[in-house]
Amino acid sequence: MKLPVKKLTSLVLSSFIGPFIMTFFIALFVLLMQFLWKYIDDLVGKGLDWWTITKLLAYTSTTLVPMALPLAILLSSIMTFGNLAEHYEIVAAKSAGISLQRLMRPLVIVAIMISVGAFFFSNYVLPYSNLKMGSLLYDVRQQKPALFIKEGVFYNGIDGYSIKIGKKLSDGKSIRNIMIYDHTNNMGNRKVVVADSGSMVMTDDKRYLIVTLFRGHSYEDQQNRKRNYDTSPLLRTTFDSEVIRFDLSSFQLSRTNEDLFKDNYQMLNVFQLNAMQDTFRLQSALRIYRFKKDLVPYFHFLKDSSLMGAASAATIAKWPIKKSDVKTSSLLFETATSQARVIKSYIESTKDDLNSRNRAYLKYKIEWHRKFTLSIACLLLFLIGAPLGAIIRKGGLGLPIVISIAFFLCYHIISITGEKFAKEGVISVERGMWQSSLVLLPIGLFLVYKATHDSALFDMDAYKSFFRRLFRKKTA
Predict the structure, then answer these.
(1) pLDDT > 90: percent of the chain
(2) Residue-number span of the structural domain to which 459 is assigned
(3) I need a surface site. Which of 39, 98, 246, 411 has the fewest CB within 10 A?
(4) Please, are residues 181 and 192 in contact by the beta-carbon 8 Å criterion?
(5) pLDDT tens-digit map of 330-372
(6) Got the DSSP string for 348-388?
(7) CA 440 to CA 411: how far, in whole Å?
(8) Same domain, yes or no, for 181 and 135?
(9) Which of 250, 248, 183, 173 is nearest to 212 (CA)?
(10) pLDDT computed for residue 306 by the predictor
(11) What are the backbone angles phi and psi of residue 427, rounded to the nearest 5°?
């Protein structure tokens, strides 16, 4: 009996690996297309080289693995056991005395290995990829659009200049009717250059734009900015040829120091997240202690003061009240009101500061739990997909895709909802991050039970016969 079991184990493994790799890369591709659709306006028209785009897509693909991996496990497990059930291989195994649990055992081991690998991936690889992708995407979004001067329209992309070209010739270099406003002195439209024709070329390193002008004039207003003349001298220069060099260094992709992003909660591992949580708790405790210490003197500011003695004298004074007592009471009231405003402002600022610290603390705590929920989700979705495939008895990419997407959407919606409530402080972080797993676990155990007992959970004929018997009993 050992030989058939070994062959069956190799059959199950070979049936799972192929669909798993295929569905993983399909899911990753779909999610990557969603990313491109979201940021297409920030990427197009900026003259990015292929190496920069390739790095951005590679880092982004790595950050999308936590979404693609659970979906791939769910879909591939449904396809694997759906194919085995459709070709009656599960029935043959059961007739040989091999239970469904024994048939699932090799894939359970594989799912556990994937879950452990997913933890190490999310703990070490994912923070690095988030750092690289986040910093590169920030720089790309800050990048200026590529140099593109249209005919008949003023172009203001080059710092300090406004350029208008009447017409571009077919050679891509020759231009006609050029007008250039020079704003480098920050004094408005004081200097303008016009020319009948010229040429426009870029240096090999794309650092400078060389514009050569022919048969033109230069006009410059010589008015002194310290004086206001009704008429100001105008300097006019005529030239046959003039060369203007424009600096294009601002169009080059400048990289931001990655150290500015390193403290973000998405770019830390479990140990760093623990340290940051301890730091936030310590800072909040010190802030509360300082608040209490600073607030105490405000409640004793009248103690042993001359105003307190004057107020007591004014309170017990008999009619007629002296003018000096009224003045003292008024001064005391103004002082108390001013102190109350100070206290209120201080309390509100402390409250806002503590709320801000708490929101940041919750983000780090949520990210800490996310490192583990990904691994558990991979295992639970396999626990759902394997018996589900044995129940529906359909392989391929038809019904399994529909069912897997429906289950994954439910899992994702529950996860997103719980995370949002945890960030808002409506529920605890533990409950918000683990409620999807708590929902999936009984569903998976229920499906394993149904698949073990050959349940017709998705057999429409079984439901039709049940309702027929039910209506017959009612009519009888």
Answers:
(1) 10
(2) 2-143+369-475
(3) 39
(4) yes
(5) 776 777 788 778 888 888 888 888 888 888 899 999 999 999 9
(6) HHHHHHHHHHHHHHHHHHHHHHHHHHHHHHHHHHHHHHHHH
(7) 8
(8) no
(9) 173
(10) 47
(11) -125, 170
